[in-house]
Amino acid sequence: MSDGVAMPRDGKGAARGRRAPLSSLWLLAPAAVLFLFVFILPVGEVALWSVQGEAGLSAENYEAALGAGPYRTILFGTLQLSFGVACACILVGYPAAYFLASRPPRNRTLLLLLILTPLWVSVLVRTFGWIVVLGREGLVNSMLIGIGAVDGPLQMLYTRGAVYIAMVQVLLPVAILVMFSTMTTINRSLLMASRILGASPWRGFVHIFLPLSAGGAVNAWMLTFVLALGFFITPALVGGPKETMIANLIATQITLTLDWGLGSALGMVLVIAGFTVVGAIALLFRRATGLSGHGGSR
Amino acid sequence: MKKLLWSLSVGAAIVGGAGDAALAQSGNKSITIANYGGAWAETLNRICIEPFTKETGITVTQAATEDSLAQIRVQQTTKNILWDIAPTERSGLPVSSKNGWLEPIDWSVVDPDNKLPPVARKQYAIGAIAYSTTIGVRTDKLPEGKSFGGWKDFWDVKTFPGPRTLRNSPAENLEFALIADGVKPSEVYNVLRSPEGVDRAFRKLDEIKPAITVWWTSGQQPVQLLASGEVFYATAFNGRIQQLQKDKLPVRIIWDGGSLDVSYYSIVKGARNVADAQKFMNYCWNTPTRLAEIARAMPYSSFNPDIYKILSADEAKELPTSPANLDVQFALDSEYWAENLPRIQKRWEAWRLQ
Question: Are B50 and B116 within one domain?
Fold first, then answer.
């Protein structure tokens, strides 16, 4: 009986059958040209800077970036933080997206608006909000002291926890929207069918809804992870002494020490590390489910 | 004064709008000044730029910048010179001079009466104003009956407990640490020139590290930290602490052991209008009446000694270069930092992450 509700595994075959005909490739031309000028060429130049030494090509910048020392520590710290933030966004955002997707369409609009509104407020303002909330004389501390829960103010601002909270808050709407859009394409009659065939709602969710929405969750994870990698202002404003992100470090190299070679190398390492992690996750997901990361909608 | 990240866009919008309006009404001659935006840009606009344009017909546009050195470098490498005058503070001046990115200043135009001291009269830059990185103290958080004196007390977390903030930069902080360790302000660079001296400064910084809740990165940050009670003791630019005092916050400024720094302006190599840029430098940054007006608007002072003939004694004592304040501070050695920053910066990052 349980095999009857296993998810459809025809994703690959269907995708292969829909390869675009050559004659319509020109539709990609404007995007390709833009991509070439605003991404490939500049990144290529940065890559060149990163390997230019005093005399010809040199790997010294990469040795400085990846050798034992502060830069490697900061790089791993950045990857770790972004990983955690992306996971937290999925854990918090998935139930919200599920809730949203299961509302009737006319109720969704208001809820979607509530989720979208923070996106229109600048990251800077949202980060400052957290400074007000988490400060020594901020909302939370005043409340805690007011009800007598603590004697003195707790140090919440300028900690790793503050960076987590602020970054998750900034990125959460993005994660919810991506997952929501996948969930709305899931055919709900499959769930109904599973109930008719005797499955409990929980079993239906685990065996039908979860696998079908996993693609969206993985996409949301990758998107938030990549966005988190480049975070700059939030960790600088609410992070503690140890929450330096690689982006802050690159800015120091470009503007302060004027070591553009090292700055470029750090940038390239960040790009490559980001691609590697995202690529690995996408590959693992495809292996595990036989689906591409584009939402199992069928 | 500077690096007011979040006001920059607003400042740029205001300044940019004013520039456009001026461009529309006047003729062909124009100069572009890169600047840090915010209150300083508005002050310049009111006291220098508007009268200058009225008198000479030369349009002056301000361009906002955060990191002039990197942008000077870009303009020189691409040979696309957008600025006539650019700020070149800290390592900006030594690095750009060495690389040949600046035009020499014609001192017969900018300072014909030879009023400026050598520190403001550089081959490639004029010292427009001086500002100071000083200690700001929340007086209401001081322990009963104790008075706070300087770097020794900043380091003394037993007598003066409470969270503190310093700038996220080795420059200045190594100097401050040495002064706290008993080095005379006038001697700090002699000590720092030896590797043992740098070690000594870092060892002293180890002591204060646990009390630093945050390392500030932009000029407005320490002021907000003081105002919100997040820290009790902070380094900050003198003018910003004085702004807090004007807002009636219980904050005191400690000049002792302060780091006096110069806001230099240079003419970018290949600038379109070098002659008028020199004229503007003389008009704005070496005319005592205007300099006195600038000092009244913002407590940053010029090097032209004639301003003290115009300013009252009360006004003068608020300035970083007033004789009494000058005596207790040291001058930040930008040559030292231009030479040593890349190396020490790396050690700083490592030390901070430990």
Answer: yes
The distance of B343 to chain A (nearest Cα, Å) reads: 9
Q: Which of B228, B342, B353 sits opposite A73 (nearest CB)?
A: B353
Chain A's closest residue to B351, CA to CA, is A70
Q: Which residue has the tokens 């006038």?
A: B186
Chain A nearest-CA distance from B276, in A, is: 29
Please judge whether A256 and B345 are an interchain contact, meaning their C-beta atoms are less than 8 angstroms apart.
Answer: yes
Can you tell me the ipTM of this complex? 0.78
Per-residue exposure over B195-217, b if at least 16 CB sit within 10 Å of its own CB, e if not: eebbebbbebbeebeebbbbbbb
Residue reference for tokens 């400074």: A131
Do B211 and B149 fall into the same domain?
A: yes
Is the pLDDT at A295 greater than 60? The verdict is no
**What domain range includes position B109?**
30-130+262-323
Which of B69, B213, B349 is the closest to A258 by Cβ?
Answer: B69
Q: What does the pLDDT average to over B48-76?
A: 93
In chain A, the N- to C-terminal Cα span, in Å, equals 21
Instruction: Choose the closest CB to B95 out of A69, A233, A258.
Output: A258
CATH number at residue B184: 3.40.190.10
Using the predicted structure, report yes or no on whether residue A83 has a pLDDT greater than 50: yes
> What's the CA gap between B180 and B200, in Å, rounded?
11
pLDDT digits (tens, 9 = 90+) for B178-225: 999 999 999 999 999 999 999 999 999 999 999 999 999 888 889 999
Residue among B71, B140, B345, B354 with most chain A CBs within 10 A, to mutate: B345
- Say yes or no: B91 and B202 in one domain: no
Check B67 against A258: CB less than 8 A apart: no
| Residue B9 CB-density burial (10 A; 0-12 exposed, 13-18 middle, 19+ buried) | middle
* pLDDT in the model for residue A12: 45
Binary contact (B66, A73; C-beta < 8 A): no
* pLDDT tens-digit map of B94-132: 999 999 999 999 999 999 999 999 989 999 999 999 999
User: Are B158 and B215 within one domain?
Assistant: yes
Looking at residues B324-333, what average pLDDT do you find? 92
Same domain, B158 and B204: yes
- In sequence order, the β-bridge partners of residue B267 are B85, B103
| Domain identity same for B121 and B191 | no
Strand partners, B264: B127
pLDDT at residue A18, as a whole number:
60
CA distance A163 to chain B (A): 13
- SS3 for B196? helix
∠ Cα B198 B199 B201 (to 5°): 65
With an 8 Å Cβ cutoff, are A71 and B349 in contact?
A: yes
Alpha-carbon distance values, B189 to B153, B192, B210 (Å):
22, 5, 26
Give the angle A71-A272-A38 at the CA atoms, nearest 5°: 110
| pLDDT given at position A263 | 93
Which among B67, B209, B342 is the nearest to A255, CB-wise? Answer: B67
**Rounded Cα distance, A135 and B221, in Å:** 14
